[in-house]
Every structure is written in structure tokens, then in C-alpha cells.
């Protein structure tokens, strides 16, 4: 513990230091996924109202899975939106998606279990999966569309496969897996779990579900595969990352539900979570169908994609989330990012996302920062044109 570095966090700290030296407006920090859009006014108003009206109780412990009324309101919203029939008992409120995933991984994993992940992926998955002692099998990225390579996936499943993790809209590619991709994935999962006579759980990590552009639809995975657990967070959709609030859906219909649900609750206890923040349980329950104004992200995406393509960079146009995956101008993405620092462009090398040769650009920044960064991207390109690597 403590020996592995988080490249993203290190870059973020470097950016702060650099901003102190040269001024924040001169540093183009695309490192972190901190929403730039403020939380909806409704969220702040609700929090203030709760603080005033429930001053005696709002800071109290709740039951470990969360307040039953809050869970019911969230379940009702999911039922309305996705045609499900969840009850409050199928929801477990957590301290954000990180906690949702850690509780599920801890609850499900037995010695010798294997997990499957699709590159590119959120780097913390590796830390959490390896932290519970499971082996990780990464399916390489499918180029050029960054969907899922079904054939490679089918071949990677073994009798030891316990969990498959899917993240859509995806961090870092911004890609939304199409319905065709999801159907193929679920057909393979059904076939393989029947063949091996053991459930393979699909964990869908979807903090970016509501952040999608151009009317793209994000398939709701429980509709395609029964053994699906949903890990969700309000960090991005309501711009509340510091408040730490999210949930797990553990549908009654999953295999071994009678063991899995208590195991996840037990895992939350072992990990010391106690309960999710009481004030924000109530806030999200009251603002359950709200989303921050994502039009600013869309605008940033469009300026960035057009600008980078015009300069000559290659990137995948993101359909959701607020990340753009761009091809580095040399094979070694670390070296490329070091060169980018010369122009105070802070880009995250893609190696830890399981897909070397790219960089992630978090465009949840001000529009001005995107526009002002373009000359720096041009200088970086120029540097490669004139000083061939
Ligand atoms: N999963 C993905 C794909 C993420 O990008 C993040 C955060 O950036 C998380 C999980 C963790 O989210 P939270 O802040 O809700 O713990």
C-alpha cells in the first residue's frame, strides 16, 4: 500500500504548483474529472431547506443501507425511467461510485476469482480489484470505435470468471457502448455462465449516465442481463463529487441474491462505511430527476474536437462523459505528456487506462480554458513537426 502512484493526482498537484508560479489562467489543466458545471440551484436550495427544517435530525446516522424513504424515491425514479420494479430494499446508498464498487467487489470475491475489464478503463478499477485479491483480465481496446471486441471477450471468459465490469459512457474514451455491443456482450455472458454452471456478474459503473450528447441512448444493462448490479454516483450528474453520495442496485433477481445482498452489506461494514451522508441522502432523493446543465460540456466538446482535428490531432468524438481520448504524437504517451508540459498543457498519459499511446483530456473546465489552450496544442504539434522524435 502507498507504493503505487496515481498519475492523475500527481498531475493535478503539479498543476496547482505551476498555477501558483505562472498564474492559473496560463495553465491548461485537463487532468481531473471535477465537474465545472455547478450543482443545480435546486440541490443547494434543498440542502438549505433541509438544514433549516430538519435541524434536529438531519445530521444523524441513518440505517446502514440508507434512509428507507430516500431509497424508495430513488427506486421510484429508476422504475419510471427504465421500466424496472425495484423496491427500497434493492438499493444500498453509498459514499459515491468508488464505495459502491469497492463494496460490490469485496462482497462478491472469493479466492481465485477472475475479473474482466475492457480497455480503456478507469485506473482505480485495477487498484480495487487487485485490492480484493482477484485476478484482472483486460480485453484490449477495439479500434477505431472503442466499442467492445466480442470475440476477444468470449475467449477471455474462464470457469473462474466472477465479474465483468462495464463503464458507459466511458472514462476515458467518452464512448457510449451501443445497444448492439451490449446485446453481444450479454449473449456471450449468458452462454458462458450456462456452460460453466455458475453466475458471472455484470457490474455496470455509470456515474456518467446522464452526461450524453446528441440524443444518444445509454442502454440500461439490467434490461439485457439478469445478473447485473448497478453502481451509480451523483458526483458527475449533480456535480457533487465532494459530497460523496451514490448507490448500488442489487436487484432481487440476481443469482444467489440471498447471499450476495448480505455480503455487500457486510462488505460496507468491514470497510467502515457506516452510512452515506445523511443530508445528501435526502438532497438527492428530493432532486432525483435533476441533472446539472450539461450544455456547457457539449460546447466544450465541440470546440475541442473541431480545434484539435483542425490542428491535425486524431481523436474519438466523445458521445458522453467529459473526457476526450486523443492519440499521442509519439508511441510513448508519458514522453508526449512531458513535452506537453512545456506549454503548460496537462494531459494524462493513457498507459494506466490500459491503452498505451493516447492521452486523456478532461474537458470539464471553462470554455475560455479550452479556447485559450488551442495555441498551446498548436505549438505542441509544431514541436513534433520540426523536431521529429
Ligand atoms: N467510476 C468512474 C468511471 C469514474 O470516472 C469515477 C470518478 O471519476 C468513479 C467511478 C468514482 O466516482 P465517485 O466520485 O462517485 O466515487
Summarize the structure in words:
The chain has helices spanning 7-22, 41-53, 68-82, 96-108, 124-131, 150-156, 179-196, 257-270, 278-286, 295-311, 333-341, 367-386; strands at residues 28-29, 91-94, 114-118, 135-139, 161-167, 201-205, 228-233, 246-249, 323-327, 345-346, 348-349, 358-362. By secondary structure, it is of the alpha/beta class. The chain has a seven-stranded mixed sheet, sandwiched between helices. A three-stranded antiparallel sheet has the order 9-12-11. The chain has a two-stranded parallel ribbon with strand order 1-10. Helix 5 links the parallel strand 3 (114-118) and strand 4 (135-139). The longest helix is centred in the C-terminal third of the chain and has 20 residues, at 367-386. The protein is globular, with a radius of gyration of 21 Å. Pyridoxal-5'-phosphate binds at residues 33, 96-98, 122, 167, 171, 205, 207, 233, 235, 241, 246.
Amino acid at each position: 500500500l502507498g507504493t503505487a502512484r496515481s498519475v492523475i493526482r500527481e498531475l493535478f498537484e503539479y498543476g496547482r504548483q505551476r498555477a501558483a508560479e505562472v498564474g492559473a489562467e496560463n495553465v491548461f489543466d485537463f487532468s481531473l474529472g471535477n465537474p465545472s458545471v455547478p450543482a443545480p440551484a435546486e440541490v443547494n436550495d434543498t440542502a438549505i431547506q433541509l438544514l433549516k427544517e430538519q435541524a434536529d435530525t438531519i445530521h444523524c446516522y441513518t440505517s446502514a443501507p440508507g434512509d428507507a424513504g430516500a431509497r424508495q424515491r430513488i427506486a421510484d425514479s429508476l422504475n419510471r425511467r427504465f421500466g424496472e420494479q425495484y423496491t427500497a430494499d434493492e438499493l444500498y446508498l453509498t459514499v459515491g461510485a468508488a464505495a459502491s464498487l469497492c463494496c460490490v467487489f469485496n462482497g462478491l470475491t472469493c479466492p481465485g476469482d477472475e475479473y474482466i475489464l475492457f480497455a480503456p478503463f478507469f485506473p482505480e478499477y485495477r487498484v480495487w480489484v487487485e485490492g480484493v485479491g482477484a485476478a484482472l483480465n483486460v480485453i484490449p481496446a477495439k479500434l477505431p470505435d472503442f466499442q467492445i471486441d466480442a470475440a476477444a471477450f468470449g475467449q477471455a471468459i474462464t470457469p473462474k470468471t466472477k465479474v465483468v465490469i462495464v463503464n458507459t459512457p466511458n472514462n476515458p474514451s467518452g464512448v457510449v457502448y451501443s445497444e448492439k455491443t451490449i446485446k453481444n456482450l450479454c449473449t456471450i455472458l449468458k452462454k458462458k455462465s450456462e456452460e460453466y454452471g455458475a453466475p458471472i456478474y455484470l457490474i455496470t459503473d455509470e456515474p456518467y449516465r446522464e452526461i450524453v450528447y446528441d440524443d444518444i441512448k445509454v442502454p440500461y444493462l439490467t434490461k439485457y442481463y439478469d445478473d447485473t448490479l448497478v453502481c451509480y454516483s451523483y458526483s458527475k450528474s449533480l456535480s457533487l463529487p465532494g459530497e460523496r453520495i451514490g448507490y448500488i442496485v442489487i436487484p432481487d433477481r440476481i443469482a444467489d441474491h440471498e447471499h450476495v445482498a448480505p455480503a455487500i452489506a457486510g462488505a460496507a461494514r468491514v470497510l467502515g462505511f457506516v452510512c452515506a451522508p445523511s443530508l445528501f441522502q435526502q438532497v438527492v432523493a428530493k432532486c432525483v430527476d435533476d441533472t446539472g446543465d450539461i450544455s456547457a460540456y457539449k460546447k466544450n466538446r465541440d470546440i475541442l474536437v473541431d480545434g484539435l482535428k483542425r490542428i491535425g490531432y486524431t481523436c474519438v468524438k466523445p458521445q458522453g462523459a467529459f473526457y476526450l481520448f486523443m492519440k499521442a504524437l509519439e508511441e510513448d504517451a508519458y514522453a508526449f505528456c512531458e513535452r506537453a508540459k512545456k506549454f503548460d498543457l496537462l494531459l494524462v498519459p493513457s498507459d494506466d487506462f490500459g491503452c498505451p499511446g493516447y492521452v486523456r483530456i478532461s474537458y470539464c473546465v471553462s470554455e475560455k480554458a479550452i479556447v485559450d489552450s488551442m495555441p498551446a496544442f498548436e505549438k505542441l504539434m509544431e514541436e513534433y513537426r520540426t523536431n521529429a522524435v
